[in-house]
Amino acid sequence: MSATPALRLATLADRVALDRVMKDSARDLGAAFYDARQNASFVEHVAKVDDQLVSDGTYFAVEAGGEIVACGGWSRRDKRFTGNDGAAGGSRFLVPPGEPARVRAMFVAPSWARRGLGKMLLAACEDAARRERFTGVELMATLPGVPLYRACGYVDQERFDVVLPDGVALPCIRMTKGIAG
């Protein structure tokens, strides 16, 4: 099997592998940005597979050597981040071009970080959203992802804490990017 990363749509059969990548990424990469309590909450409450994204066909997996090493997606729905409360948003379909698509749940295995997989995933998300007539994208960035998003042209809009189900406040930044053209 090739160790060259290859992008494909994720399936529900990938759930265990996706969960592993998400939790490893949040635990290892998040430790440089969050204190121990915040990072434990990040792993528990944010690094979770969203079955709706996978079922909608808008969630990607990057495979190398027969193993999933990164994942991320976009959504045409009003949900901004993982969660079941009203703050996360809902399942209402967004209306292009007036509303931005959502980029969501981007994670890279720590051993594959800083090798271009995040950029590959973002490009795939933006291209797919553009094909559905979206002219902008929005995301809720956890702090480990902010350098990648800024390098890819995303602009900070608002900094705030997302209060997770265990009451822990996780600093995040809402970011946007135009993708018309």
Short description:
With about 180 residues, the protein is α+β, with helices and mostly antiparallel strands. The chain has five helices and seven strands, in the order βαααβββαβαββ.
Describe the structure.
By secondary structure, the protein is α+β, with helices and mostly antiparallel strands. It has helices at about 15-30, 35-45, 50-55, 115-130, 145-150, and strands spanning about 5-10, 60-65, 65-75, 100-110, 135-140, 155-165, 170-180. A seven-stranded mixed beta sheet has the order 1-2-3-4-5-7-6. The longest helix has 16 residues, at about 15-30. It is globular. The relative contact order is 0.18.
Strand order of the largest sheet: 1-2-3-4-5-7-6
Instruction: Write down the secondary-structure element order.
Output: EHHHEEEHEHEE
Shape: globular
The biggest beta sheet is recorded as: 7 strands, mixed
- Helix tally? 5
Radius of gyration: 15 Å
In terms of per-residue confidence, which ranges show pLDDT below 50 for 5 or more consecutive residues? 83-87
Average pLDDT level: 93
Secondary structural class? alpha+beta
Secondary structure elements and pairings:
Blueprint: E1 6-9, H1 15-30, H2 36-45, H3 51-55, E2 59-64, E3 67-75, E4 101-108, H4 117-131, E5 136-142, H5 146-151, E6 155-163, E7 169-178
Parallel strand pairs: 4-5
Antiparallel strand pairs: 1-2, 2-3, 3-4, 5-7, 6-7
Helix pairs in contact: 1-2
Q: Keywords for this structure?
A:
alpha+beta, seven-stranded mixed beta sheet, 181 residues, 29% helix, single chain
